Amino acid sequence: MTTGYVYNEVFGWHDTGTNAGLFPADHRLGIQPFQHFENAETKRRLHELVVVSGLIDQLTPVRPRKATDEEILLVHTEEHLARIQAGSDHPKGGDSGDGLSPFGPGGIEIGRLAAGGVIALVEQVVDGAVDNGYALVRPPGHHAVPEHGMGFCMFANLAIAAKAVRRSRGVERIAIVDWDVHHGNGTQAAFYDDPDTLTISIHQDRVFPPDTGLVEERGTGAGEGYALNIPLPPGTGHGGYLAAMDRVIAPAIDRFQPDLVLVASGFDANAADPLARQGLTSSAYRTMTERLLEVAGQHAGGRLAMSHEGGYNPVYVPFCGLAVIEALAGVTEPLADPYEPIFGGMGQLELQPHQTALLDQVVPLLDAIGSGTRA
Amino acid sequence: MTTGYVYNEVFGWHDTGTNAGLFPADHRLGIQPFQHFENAETKRRLHELVVVSGLIDQLTPVRPRKATDEEILLVHTEEHLARIQAGSDHPKGGDSGDGLSPFGPGGIEIGRLAAGGVIALVEQVVDGAVDNGYALVRPPGHHAVPEHGMGFCMFANLAIAAKAVRRSRGVERIAIVDWDVHHGNGTQAAFYDDPDTLTISIHQDRVFPPDTGLVEERGTGAGEGYALNIPLPPGTGHGGYLAAMDRVIAPAIDRFQPDLVLVASGFDANAADPLARQGLTSSAYRTMTERLLEVAGQHAGGRLAMSHEGGYNPVYVPFCGLAVIEALAGVTEPLADPYEPIFGGMGQLELQPHQTALLDQVVPLLDAIGSGTRA
Amino acid sequence: MTTGYVYNEVFGWHDTGTNAGLFPADHRLGIQPFQHFENAETKRRLHELVVVSGLIDQLTPVRPRKATDEEILLVHTEEHLARIQAGSDHPKGGDSGDGLSPFGPGGIEIGRLAAGGVIALVEQVVDGAVDNGYALVRPPGHHAVPEHGMGFCMFANLAIAAKAVRRSRGVERIAIVDWDVHHGNGTQAAFYDDPDTLTISIHQDRVFPPDTGLVEERGTGAGEGYALNIPLPPGTGHGGYLAAMDRVIAPAIDRFQPDLVLVASGFDANAADPLARQGLTSSAYRTMTERLLEVAGQHAGGRLAMSHEGGYNPVYVPFCGLAVIEALAGVTEPLADPYEPIFGGMGQLELQPHQTALLDQVVPLLDAIGSGTRA
Amino acid sequence: MTTGYVYNEVFGWHDTGTNAGLFPADHRLGIQPFQHFENAETKRRLHELVVVSGLIDQLTPVRPRKATDEEILLVHTEEHLARIQAGSDHPKGGDSGDGLSPFGPGGIEIGRLAAGGVIALVEQVVDGAVDNGYALVRPPGHHAVPEHGMGFCMFANLAIAAKAVRRSRGVERIAIVDWDVHHGNGTQAAFYDDPDTLTISIHQDRVFPPDTGLVEERGTGAGEGYALNIPLPPGTGHGGYLAAMDRVIAPAIDRFQPDLVLVASGFDANAADPLARQGLTSSAYRTMTERLLEVAGQHAGGRLAMSHEGGYNPVYVPFCGLAVIEALAGVTEPLADPYEPIFGGMGQLELQPHQTALLDQVVPLLDAIGSGTRA
Ligand SMILES: [Zn+2]
Ligand SMILES: [Zn+2]
Ligand SMILES: [Zn+2]
Ligand SMILES: [Zn+2]
Fold first, then answer.
1. Which segments constitute the Histone deacetylase domain (chains A, B, C, D) (predicted)?
2. Does the interface predicted TM-score (ipTM) exceed 0.85?
């Protein structure tokens, strides 16, 4: 198994300022300066663990390049690109669109490298230069809609990459799974009317954006049925996630018969994330990766690429991310996760009836998914 | 309303080292040095918000003193005290008992001041020098059992204070509510056979300690029925907590008719805590405080004192803590919590059927609670 | 001895962003995000040491208030005030004037409290409510010239306070000593033509501003002779500083016969500061304080007030600052400085011939100083 | 020009704890927990700048390996190795020997990799696999004497490498230049009686160790004359350093005619270092590197390898280190150093008479240096 790996130290230089978690510091509001939840630590520490654990020796480095205007405009509007450029040119930097997503002077170049890093990886996967791969990029992308960024995301990295390889390599059928704990609204928006791109977002019910990601959002026009949402209740652990994998995600991909499987890989569904309330540990991420590899192997020649999204616990994201990349690389003797017994030891992480009830709502929607011209 | 307030900057100097969240850093295990989850930030930032918001002007400072050996031994064994002293005397410091609870050289003195700070506050409340109060101390205490510390706790601050005022002031009936998201196992252990001390712990089901805090734990011997546990499922928000307050906590105190109400006030049930999966916001903490003030007013002459326990999100604990202290002080124009709309906007934070089911198990246990010789 | 002490936690909330020491982060220039040299740590840690050492119990708290427009305009132009207000109103904050002095939204209010904190202290000293005092404020002030801020300084805190008490209390003759390692150019500028205000800056030769603070700068017009500069060579230790105190500073004040002595108290001449190259330890600061107390006792009834300025080593500033405040308070058993043997152990910190040569240039300038109408 | 480069992310995981700069935190002594001066930031940020600037593409990665017991014992005693092993096996870690040099559990392995990284680089330089090179390792080594570590150093990395290639490759004559601002006492001790190894330490007079590095220390026995010390006065800038290079260091190497030139490359003589008082900027480091390359080219076939030592300003070390590595690699369009105008703008950084006086003492000592059997 050859697994591509994208990282560049400059991803850690994306500057989200002294926001106190979310908001700019302002003593009049009682907000003391601190650091943004979306700071460099989770990503830098994951990369360092990839190196220190020795996993790096089993990966094939893929060099990120900067996405061009043309590539970014495959998803975004000219207005959005211009806004990011303007913020990047300002001496105090700018914001990607919602006031919660700051970036520093020159920030657009890091955003281009994040998007272009994912493109480069997906190109190599499609070209067979590597079997699969992981792009550890920053800023994240899955909340960025065509018209603006939001939720700490500047450009829709993975959606851009999907459109780029469709254009450059003629890839027809693409399945995109988003296991970030927040709704993959940006990715969904980019393909909402497209029956050749199946988007599946598994997330915690209405966390962010606060009002999207409902079961009822299923795509529109020709794309109707090709957007799936699995809004799991708060407090869901491996039980609910693996059931969703078995009952919804794998079967949906199975029906869809993609040429390529992409994953928006956030780690904020882990049991120690501050920005959501789910309960996964590294072993759940490992298992989910293995399931997706299996289904990608059946339909897409194993072509699977992941792009890093959220995840805000600097201590635990590294171990969850390591498990995923180890699984991609087929590592047979993975590093033990010392936090698993603690974080995974909470009560009621097994499948619960109210989680099953949600899945029962989603399962019937699979019927609408076809395999395109292959059928 | 006069509200006492205990804080000393040295609480921020309790040194939990470079543990990566929980475990000592060790590159062989893939654990990069970082900071302990239980570091100074949440507490220091809460204190600074108390000052910067101006609330400090409405509080009465209560000066902490160091708990004596005699006071500590009201709860703990001589062996435990000796172990902490030995660690404190070691040039590299020690650990309170479970390998997850480090402290630095001289650490016992900070532990004495934390316990003694709670004693001083409770004494003033009992003496009527203040109506109620909040002790913002560190290290926390509610996991420390008589034989050893654990869960970041060195001494059982609140249990020691309860026994100290019972001894020095003859306070007979004490109700202790523990809303830290973890089980108040140490406090429970200190009074497990004591029918004059009602302990109520509302927590997330089996987080820490991993196997205690079950509904079945009810006290022993004469104390049978005087320990209550409310192990809410993961993902519970204000709905479940306020229902528990209405259906269990307030009625239990009502039956018990205490002379004094104490609260182990952790903020790790908030919606952004990394170490648990519940969903409270500052308004829920405010409401819970108001309910307890009300019931303390009915039975204990309003005598209510809180001791700070866990809470691991440095951004959000300050706003939750501020709301509680504002409520204690009867502030009528509280500071707006800017995070409330975000953190409290998640789906399914209202009361859910599986949470009601848990409360249905606990409610019948109230029948065993009597009001002692008053009845 | 009664010693006033000004501090407010909000001084630590003055937000200097993620500048890498000096400059805004910008990956295109190779500047990784970090923290500004002028961040909260040195001041917050000094305050915490004042508390933890117990010194706080020997001080009289003086509450800071916000300087009014009228007070600020005693030194600054309307244009400068308007610029700070505009930056303060901007969602990304502003800069005090040179691009190296950022502040956050609402920052002007913290600047007002810093200036007003110094005013409040000086008023109490003049009124005899306290004998002397220390204002631990932030942002600093001594580089701010009438037309703009610079060098991390927003408003000329100490110059404003001097003019304010002259106006409100009729204080006539004021001596201002600036021992910050950088030239007190702002304070000097505020009184350059004023023979009733003697400004003495002892600093390292041409560090900041890069081209001021020369021996030749002596005041203008009626003020000629009433500005003194002592630009010590890099590498000067206690030897050179105490010789300067004996040969220049004390004799100058002696001749001037002030009613009030003010000190711009930066700690960046200490032996571990990153932004200058001098070699003082806490004992040198203690001795300098004692000398100034002595001379203030002879001429100004002991009326001496200090305002905190620079100092950028978070480890060592606290011990230097503590020594100064202990000396003000007449503490007879000061806390031992554990760093003194290390930082003060460097070679050649005694008086060196090339330092004497500089002092020899300055000493003759004392002849021009008169005692005003008293003479 | 081929330039080897050693780095491994685990060097940033060497855990120096929560020491406040130097000493373990202890509230009884007024020492608040903080970070050790010798923490990961200066090195990690230098590495990241090497990547982000693009310089990495012009370097040849050299993989570090762990130094063996046999290699370490070329310099150190069995007792020292056993002490480090014991500390490494302790759950709280250990100290390298002086109480100021902590390391964490498993720390010996990082120490082995640092020493072995330097060995690997020097081997490749000697073998001609690369022309020259830089080993960015941590912990540092130049203070470690045979019997114990000290001054943040565990093993004498560069001395071990010198002895290792002498043994394995038969390298005879080795010149070691140490431009760390502190005395290279450990390196000097390892070769004090060896006429085949010329050690030259240029440092600030008596900083650390407090009493070594005097001009009078010249070697012993057969090695007499082959240790040189240049204890520059505090406050020395590029003027004094470049004069020392011209008048002492280059001529000494010229006389010695080495087969290999090694450099202990600390950056704590820079103008913003907290632990010393010198005034170099990146351009001085660049020039010094060019001079050494020149002299190594004349005598040692250009074989020059550098090992990273001290340097404690996280903002400025990266730019100084970058300049050195750029110079090694013969980069013709180096990155501009934005801090140079500020930090290098201080007065009196040009050669001063009292610095010349020191050099005048050292120059005559060159006469004792011979070129061995080549003469
Ligand atoms: Zn997310
Ligand atoms: Zn807790
Ligand atoms: Zn200064
Ligand atoms: Zn050094």
1. 36-326
2. yes
Bridge partners of residue D103, in order along the sequence: D94
Give catalytic residues of B, as residue numbers: 143
pLDDT, one tens digit for every residue, chain C (375 residues): 799 999 999 999 999 999 999 999 999 999 999 999 999 999 999 999 999 999 999 999 999 999 999 999 999 999 999 999 999 999 999 999 999 999 999 999 999 999 999 999 999 999 999 999 999 999 999 999 999 999 999 999 999 999 999 999 999 999 999 999 999 999 999 999 999 999 999 999 999 999 999 999 999 999 999 999 999 999 999 999 999 999 999 999 999 999 999 999 999 999 999 999 999 999 999 999 999 999 999 999 999 999 999 999 999 999 999 999 999 999 999 999 999 999 999 999 999 999 999 999 999 999 999 988 664
B335 secondary structure, DSSP code:
P
Q: Where is C231: in which H helix or E strand?
A: strand C227-232
Strand order in the sheet with A132-135: A60-61, A3-6, A132-135, A304-308, A260-265, A174-178, A197-204, A227-232
Domain B3-20+35-374 has CATH 3.40.800.20: yes
Fold of C3-24+31-374: Arginase; Chain A (3.40.800)
User: Is there a contact between C26 and A106 if contact means CB atoms under 8 Å apart?
Assistant: yes
Nearest to D48 among A9, A51, A52 (CB): A9
- Residues in chain C whose beta carbon is closer than 8 A to a beta carbon of chain B? 8-10, 12-13, 47-48, 51-52
Residues 6+ apart with CB under 8 A from C297: none
Strands B102-103 and B94-95: antiparallel
Ligand 4 centroid from CA D221, angstroms: 28
Residues of C in contact with D49 (CB under 8 A): 30, 32
Per-residue pLDDT tens over the stretch A292-341: 999 999 999 999 999 999 999 999 999 999 999 999 999 999 999 999 99
Residue A170's region, left for phi above 0, alpha for psi from -120 to 50, else beta, is: left
At residue D313, φ and ψ (nearest 5 deg) are: -105, 110
The answer to whether A109 contacts C27, with C-beta atoms less than 8 Å apart, is: yes
The two tokens of residue D54 are 């693009």
Burial call A291-325: b when 16+ CB within 10 Å, e when fewer: bbbebbeebbebbbbbbbbbbbbbbbbbbbbbbbb
What letter does residue A246 receive in the DSSP assignment? I
Distance CA B189, CA B303 (A): 23
Longest dimension (CA), chain A: 62
User: Which bound ligand lies closest to the C-alpha atom of A317?
Assistant: 1
In this complex, the chains that touch B, judged by 3 or more CB pairs closer than 8 A, are A, C, D
- C114 Cα: distance to centroid of ligand 1 (angstroms): 40
Q: Of B146, B157, B148, which is closest to residue B180 (Cα–Cα)? A: B157
Sign of CA dihedral C213, C217, C220, C223: positive
Is residue B373 scored above 70 in pLDDT?
A: no
Active site residue A36: no
Which sign does the torsion angle of CA A90, A95, A100, A103 carry? Answer: negative
Superfamily for domain range A3-14+35-370:
Histone deacetylase domain (3.40.800.20)
3-class secondary structure, C97: coil
3-state secondary structure B41-86: HHHHHHHHHHHHCCHHHHCEECCCCCCCHHHHCCCCCHHHHHHHHH
Which residues of chain C does B338 touch, with a Cβ-Cβ cutoff of 8 Å? Answer: none
Fold of D3-15+35-370: Arginase; Chain A (3.40.800)
Closest to C107 (Cα-Cα) out of C239, C223, C11: C11
For the CA atoms of A255, A257, A260, A266, the dihedral, rounded to the nearest 10 degrees, stands at: 10
D310 in the Ramachandran plot: left (φ > 0), alpha (ψ -120 to 50) or beta?
Answer: beta
